[in-house]
Amino acid sequence: MDGTPSAAQLARNVKRLSRLELPGAGQVLVEGSYAYIGHIPNKEQLGTSILDVSDPKNPRIVSQLFLDDPTSHSHKARVIGDIMIVNSERNMTPIGRKADELPKLRTQLREALGRDPSHAELAEKLGVKESDIPAVEAAEKTPYDQGGFKLYDVSDKSKPKLIHFQKTHGIGVHRFDMDANYAYISTEWPGYIGNILVIYDIRNPVKPEEVSQWWIPGQHLAGGEKPTWPGRQHRLHHTVRQGDRLFAGCWHGGVRIVDVSDIRKPKTIGAYNYHPPFPEPSHTFMGVSKTIDGKTIAIAIDEEDHAHSAEEMAKRRGRPHGALWTFDITNTHNIQPLAMFEVSELDSPWSRAAPGRFGGHQFQEHWKGGDTLVYCAWFAGGLRIVDIADPSAPQEVGHFIPHPAAGKVAPQSNDVDVDDRGLVYLADRYAGLDILEFNRPG
Fold first, then answer.
1. Distance, CA of 44 to CA of 65 (rounded, Å)
2. Which residues make Cβ contacts (< 8 Å) with residue 140, sequence separation at least 6?
3. Which of 43, 57, 351, 394 has its CA 20 to 30 A from that of 92?
4. Residues 148 and 88 sit within 8 Å (Cβ to Cβ)
């Protein structure tokens, strides 16, 4: 887009109180006077920042945790009381999951060729360069073993103290939820394809105890299940607990409601999948804290996929973007979609910038109070505040789009939270944390 965006284009009913130039973040959580930031992989190996936000115009770094392992990141953080949990997950690598495929492929080629395959033959089948094969073989011999989650004592915010590192499996833990008693961990696990839910009792944080597991039927390969989808398309992204229910975003598997009234026997009581025809995966699913017109309502948001080039962005023209959804879940066995909310490409100066993303990603979890406002991080669309008072017709009531981080072509608003004062915290995937004030119309 030519020219400088106008103030009206970039903000409506929202003003910036302050901005802190932190490395990019995967999650922001505010509890009391403190904000907890989980960082996207960065050259400093910064994992977690704790900020004092008692003065929102002058946020202050209280402490930071750095990672010992350069192959891992810790981009999510949750806090209940004096216990903080952060994830440990493998960084993306150029060879991706190719090491997982190598043993089976090597056997298949050996049987077909009557000899050991060459590096060139392996590379062709794996879709990598021949020069990448030594790295793939090295990863096969020394698989990643730092996946899991860490529990910290944050009673002294200036000196977080590691209590325990609970290792899991595969490439580790992605997003998760927690309460005072349990951690709801999305992780890879032996015998399953894609992330599943593993629930841990954390009442003794020195020694978390596995309580139960939940997965989408078809994921448990070791149990004889056979997926009806390619690869890891159906998997758990994460759950959000509300009362005796877990709300699960299940990527291209849509959404699920899980009854955990018996925490040792999670039971699926509702499911809805809108893939296809909609192309973007279900990221987060959550119940609304109040009934509306006698109906029990839930919301979901998709995660817009990444376009790596202008050519790839152009090919997506006409394709629906990641959206916010509303559902009637009064009868969990018959979930009904009510509406979708999308942001027009005309509503962000950077909607077609590449490389980057434009579309939904995440909304504020665990609403405080009985409001009907949904605060959404919308990648190149910035912050979008959507009122679902009429869940069949969501209406945007405010927005704020930050400028791109230094050296980037577009903002990538990645996560959002709202504190007890109603102030909004918007974290960018590349760099920067904005503290914002929403002036509700009317």
1. 11
2. 99, 102, 103
3. 351
4. yes
